[in-house]
């Protein structure tokens, strides 16, 4: 049988990104948390953490973290069925990885009522839509919203719809860089804006236009900052249609190639044995997604 105090220590160290903060959350000394991790490693016969900063779960540590995530959700179901088991503590906190553009646009409106009704707290871990699933693979989150179609073992991936992106720039930027018209070579020569090193959206956009290879670009790991940089004339970039209606309306951003939007499919990944809460949230997201996301062609 598992000793769940030891598993709770492992989860706290990873979730709090260190032993000191994990000790504060658990109400223990840092030494006590360290001893629990060592005892867990002795029980499983191998390391569960790589002692780097912040600590990272090993392969077996990831499997244990995935187990902890699912147990927490199943315990919530049991407390609902047997109210006497509910100790009246703080509401459940669900850790979810999602892309910054969803968080900046439709996510809050889609899930706000659900969280209030279920007394659910969310902890959002922001990752690029192309790589967000790594958080779930590492056992750090119970669910993930990202562009990856293939589910992890023991999980489901369900298509919610697609976010539509449009290539935009400020009028001044367009006058400076596209005086002879917008073309793939001109886009590659002009400075672009990219969310981060994992963001390949602009790269794929240029490749679809027949322009392969590198291009100069700013890095801006903020959805709101991305739009502000574009308005200020830093560069061109692909931005969610949902996010830039006001800017398009007042003309501070202009579309470069109106006939070439990009639709990025979004998949909701969650553990198969995640209990009633995850199932309810999944059904709720399916109902809400039609209001905010566009259908995926061919699906």
UniProtKB/TrEMBL annotation:
Membrane spanning stretches: none
InterPro entries named among the record's database cross-references: ArgP, ArgP_gammaproteobact, LTTR, LysR_HTH_N, LysR_subst-bd, WH-like_DNA-bd_sf, WH_DNA-bd_sf
Start and end residues of each HTH lysR-type domain: 2-58
GO molecular function: DNA binding; DNA-binding transcription factor activity
Gene3D superfamilies (UniProt xref): 3.40.190.290, Winged helix-like DNA-binding domain superfamily/Winged helix DNA-binding domain (1.10.10.10)
Subunit structure: Homodimer.
NCBIfam families recorded: argP (TIGR03298), PRK03635.1 (NF002964), PRK13348.1 (NF009888)
Protein known as: HTH-type transcriptional regulator ArgP
Organism: Pseudomonas xionganensis
């Amino acid at each position: 049988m598992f000793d769940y105090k030891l598993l709770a220590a492992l989860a706290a160290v990873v979730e709090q990104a260190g032993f000191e903060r994990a000790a504060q959350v658990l109400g223990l000394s840092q030494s006590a948390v360290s001893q629990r991790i060592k005892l867990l490693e002795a029980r499983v016969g191998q390391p569960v953490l790589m002692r780097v900063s912040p600590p990272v779960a090993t392969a077996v540590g990831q499997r244990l973290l995935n187990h902890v995530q699912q147990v927490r959700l199943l315990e919530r179901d049991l407390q609902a069925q047997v109210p006497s088991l509910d100790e009246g503590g703080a509401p459940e906190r669900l850790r979810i990885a999602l892309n910054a553009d969803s968080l900046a646009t439709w996510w809050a409106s889609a899930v706000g009522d659900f969280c209030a009704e279920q007394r659910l707290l969310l902890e959002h871990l922001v990752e690029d839509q192309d790589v967000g699933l790594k958080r779930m693979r590492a056992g750090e989150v119970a669910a993930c919203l990202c562009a990856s179609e293939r589910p992890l073992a023991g999980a489901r991936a369900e298509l919610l719809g697609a976010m539509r992106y449009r290539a935009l720039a400020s009028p001044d930027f367009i006058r400076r860089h596209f005086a002879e018209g917008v073309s793939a070579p001109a886009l590659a020569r002009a400075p672009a804006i990219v969310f981060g090193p994992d963001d390949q959206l602009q790269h794929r956009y240029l490749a679809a236009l027949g322009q392969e290879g590198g291009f100069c670009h700013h890095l801006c790991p903020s959805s709101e900052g991305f739009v502000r940089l574009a308005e200020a004339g830093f560069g061109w970039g692909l931005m969610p249609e949902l996010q830039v209606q006001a800017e398009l309306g007042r003309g501070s951003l202009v579309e470069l190639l109106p006939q070439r939007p990009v639709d990025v499919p979004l998949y909701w990944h969650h553990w198969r044995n995640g209990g009633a809460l995850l199932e309810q949230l999944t059904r709720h997201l399916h109902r809400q997604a039609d209001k905010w996301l566009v259908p995926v062609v061919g699906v």
